[in-house]
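Q: Please design a sequence for this.
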């Protein structure tokens, strides 16, 4: 054989070896490759034993020593990388250990087929089971508030086909209108999860609830509330100043990241299907700016103000002038100008200037204020609500909230300019609110307005009295709201600032039930977190990290809109800002209440919940580090 032939064969062998190496590396590195599988196995070995130890604690074992189902004990394990909806694996067995092992084996098999980087691992252990007929299920769904049927569902007695509550919610499995199930939605979810579908609905179901535990990305394990309105949410100790600050930091990061290059926000997301709304609301755009500037005072994030400048630019583009010194915020979506638009524009810009230490938009605010004055009856203090684009009257009344917004903004404008005409106009509006008894509206903007006006009007004790009456008259109503209602925390905190100032000035609050008031404030701060996308809720949505740590409206199909975040931020910023005063006025003492009190939870109420926190100290909002500035949308 010639030398050239030998060299040629050697070259061919080298080429073949090189190709084989490339192919092997590709197989190893592919999403389901051996390297990814090994990495996933390592991650699971890190997460699972610690979660198992925390979840199968002595108290849980004692509580669940007797089998609850025909199949014995039932365990669900949910795994999520944050980028896609959690995958859920279930296991059954005569005892907790065997049920856990069965679920773990399915989880391991699933991760071999589809490896992922584990961000959260969650365990749900069935602790309550009740058989229900199809008719009973229908009645329960029709009676429940939309998306508040707080049960998982098994389609057979052996739990071979069962979905935990969060899966049913994420898949939109419950049909609240007709009282039944959206079988097509459930099967679509099961198909995407590579699980057997359901060909026919049974005549009998088994509804259930679970003891839950979450292993978070911060390395902490969180016990989840096993019942009540906080069901499925992490057990929380005291919502103190540090906890509130972390909530604000996380939620404001979400809102800041919704600002697009053109200055608009990603207005709303339907997180179950990861769909962005095509509608818009310029007034809520202004409100979102306001809340981001409030948040800056808490977290000091310079990026908040930097991104806000883009949003302010959009606001300026939507401003139209009727005269050189009078303008209106134009709403292109409705082709008109709203009283509330001018008010929110003033609140947004004055808050920005105060935070940024500038007077850049002072004259623009004055022009917005003059626009409000053109919409006000100077004798009665009443406002008209909507003007056409040519500034003629379109609609005398729209929503009651505009009145309080306008009065609040005029008082803020007085603080900015020192021009008494704005304060006098705000007082005329306040006099109208008193004469027309606006307490009947249970309006947070009225509370904001009186809080601001009383900063500059010592000679009007009736303003303070009305501010407290606004709370007293509505106390029962506020206590009976058992779901997140973010404007009510804003209302309570605005009233507290007024009350605190009243006491500091030596004014008599009369027969005002301060303990009940303080208890209600804490109740609201606690209940609002039921609408907060902690990982244990977010992981069952289509793209969890997109809506992580945002606030959502559960009853509106988990809608996550900029004003949902805005109002929550407003309430928590006020809570943070006044926390020391709340403590000084007796907040902690007020939480030591009788068990049958209608007010909501105190930090000690979970003592007999059937599950202990895996960690003695709750981590603020489930994070040990500052939120990443990577939310999409």
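A: Design:
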């Amino acid at each position: 054989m010639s030398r050239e032939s030998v060299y040629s064969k050697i070259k061919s062998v080298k080429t073949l070896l090189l190709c084989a190496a490339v192919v092997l590396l590709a197989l190893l590195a592919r999403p389901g490759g051996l390297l990814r599988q090994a990495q996933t196995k390592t991650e699971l070995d890190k997460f699972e034993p610690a979660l198992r130890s925390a979840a199968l604690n002595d108290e849980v074992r004692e509580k669940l020593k007797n089998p609850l189902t025909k199949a014995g004990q039932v365990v669900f394990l949910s795994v999520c990388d944050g980028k896609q909806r959690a995958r859920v694996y279930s296991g059954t067995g005569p005892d907790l250990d065997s049920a856990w092992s069965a679920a773990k084996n399915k989880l391991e098999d699933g991760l071999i087929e589809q490896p992922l980087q584990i961000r959260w691992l969650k365990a749900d252990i069935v602790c309550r089971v009740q058989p229900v007929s199809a008719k009973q299920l229908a009645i329960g769904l029709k009676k429940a508030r939309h998306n508040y049927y707080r049960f998982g569902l098994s389609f057979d007695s052996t739990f071979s086909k069962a979905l935990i509550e969060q899966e049913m919610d994420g898949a939109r499995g419950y049909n609240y209108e007709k009282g039944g199930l959206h079988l097509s939605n459930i099967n679509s979810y099961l198909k995407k999860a590579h699980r057997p579908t359901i060909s026919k609905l049974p005549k009998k179901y088994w509804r259930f609830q679970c003891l839950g535990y979450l292993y978070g990305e911060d390395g902490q394990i969180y016990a989840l509330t096993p019942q009540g309105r906080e069901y499925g949410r992490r057990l929380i100790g005291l919502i103190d100043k540090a906890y509130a600050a972390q909530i604000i930091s996380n939620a404001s990061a979400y809102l800041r990241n919704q600002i697009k290059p053109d200055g608009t926000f990603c207005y709303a997301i339907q997180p179950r299907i990861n769909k962005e709304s095509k509608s818009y609301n310029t007034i809520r755009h202004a409100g979102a700016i306001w809340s981001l500037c409030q948040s800056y005072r808490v977290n000091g994030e310079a990026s908040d103000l930097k991104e806000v400048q883009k949003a302010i630019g959009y606001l300026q583009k939507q401003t139209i002038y009727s005269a050189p010194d009078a303008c209106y915020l134009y709403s292109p979506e409705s082709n008109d100008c709203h009283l509330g638009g001018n008010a929110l524009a003033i609140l947004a810009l004055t808050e920005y200037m105060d935070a940024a230490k500038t007077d850049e938009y002072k004259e623009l605010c004055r022009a917005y204020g003059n626009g409000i004055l053109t919409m006000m009856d100077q004798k009665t203090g009443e406002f008209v609500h909507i003007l056409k684009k040519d500034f003629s009257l379109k609609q005398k009344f729209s929503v009651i909230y505009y009145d309080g917004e306008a009065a609040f903004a005029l008082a803020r404008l007085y603080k900015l300019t020192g021009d008494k005409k704005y304060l006098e106009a705000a007082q005329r509006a306040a006099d109208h609110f008193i004469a027309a008894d606006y307490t009947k509206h249970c309006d947070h903007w009225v509370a904001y307005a009186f809080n601001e006006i009383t900063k500059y009007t010592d000679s009007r004790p009736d303003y303070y009295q009305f501010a407290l009456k606004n709370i007293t008259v509505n106390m029962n109503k506020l206590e009976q709201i058992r779901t997140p209602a973010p404007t009510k925390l804003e209302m309570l905190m605005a009233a507290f600032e007024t009350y605190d100032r009243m006491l500091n000035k030596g004014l008599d609050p009369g027969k005002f039930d301060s303990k009940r008031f303080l208890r209600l404030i804490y109740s609201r701060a606690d209940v609002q977190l039921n609408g907060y996308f902690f990982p244990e809720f977010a992981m069952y949505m289509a793209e969890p990290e997109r809506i992580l740590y945002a606030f959502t409206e559960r009853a509106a199909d988990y809608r996550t809109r900029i004003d949902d975040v805005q109002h929550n931020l407003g309430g928590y910023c006020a809570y943070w800002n006044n926390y020391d005063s709340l403590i000084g006025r007796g907040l902690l003492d007020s939480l030591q209440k009788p068990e049958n009190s209608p007010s909501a939870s105190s930090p000690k109420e979970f003592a007999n919940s059937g599950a202990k926190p895996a960690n003695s100290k709750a981590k603020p909002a489930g994070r040990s580090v500052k939120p990443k500035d990577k939310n999409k949308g």
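Q: Thanks. Anything notable?
A: The longest helix spans residues 3-29. The radius of gyration is 28 Å.
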